[in-house]
Amino acid sequence: MFNDKVTLKDFQRMKPEFQDLLKRVLAIQADCEIGGPHLYVKDMLPNAPSKSDQIMVAKTAGEEMDHFRKIARLAGDLGLDVSYVLSWPNQKRYVEAFRGKISTWEDFAIFGYLIDRVGRYQLEEFVNCSYQPLAQILPQIIKEEIGHVGYGGSKAAELAAKGDESRERLQKAVDFWYPKALDMFGRSESKRSERYRYWGLKRRSNEQARSEYIREVEPLIVKLGLQVPDVHKDRMHQ
């Protein structure tokens, strides 16, 4: 296992595998950060239930855009231009969860509660990672992601409390987003995932991170008065 700490000055001296893996993970992370606003801003910003909710949608999008900017700057320092993801159509996103669009408030709430929570897990992989510039920008980004998750959870609880029809729409959103959340962790037997861990760029295997996520999330879904979807249904990756 690789235990050294790598600075920007060290990067060019690192083996090609380390360079390639770091560039890849930064490109995917940048795409995920900007992918969220592309999903929901167009419909959710003008159609939020209240002015305060509009402000929160705008604040969330602004923070995600800032996360993209920070990741893009790290990538740029390595000679990798990730600006192409700014104009990509949603269908081309690296991660399937970002390839559609969000047009209902239930979807927006559950996206924040479930998908942004996966975002927190992904960012936690880099805490104390071998590439120091990446590890150094994480505290504020993770703090803001936790805020997005909390807001999604509070909105989901409000919708669940409204009764049967609202809860049915919320259940539909959970049924749609939960499989996509689980797929975001990647294939359980991923060889690339093991190489990320070898180089100290990630801490957990895909399967370990997904299992921890399931243990965290299933009680939260039940607490909303909803059914937990089958973890094997509508999945691309097992």
Structural features, described:
The chain has one domain (15-223): Ferritin, core subunit, four-helix bundle (Ferritin, Up-down Bundle). It has nine helices and no strands. It is globular, with a radius of gyration of 18 Å. The mean pLDDT is 95. With 238 residues, it is mainly α.
Task: Detail the topology: elements first, then pairings.
Elements (H helix, E strand, L loop, with lengths): L7 H4 L4 H32 L3 H27 L27 H20 L7 H5 L1 H24 L2 H20 L7 H8 L7 H18 L15
Mean pLDDT: 95
- Proportion in helices: 55-70%
Model regions low in confidence, pLDDT < 50 over at least 5 residues: none
For the report, how would you describe the main beta sheet?
none
The termini sit apart by 26 Å
**CATH homology-level superfamily:** Ferritin, core subunit, four-helix bundle
User: What is the tally of helical segments?
Assistant: 9
CATH T-level fold name: Ferritin
Count of individual beta strands: 0
The run of helices and strands is: HHHHHHHHH
Task: Give descriptors for this structure.
mainly alpha; Ferritin; 9 helices
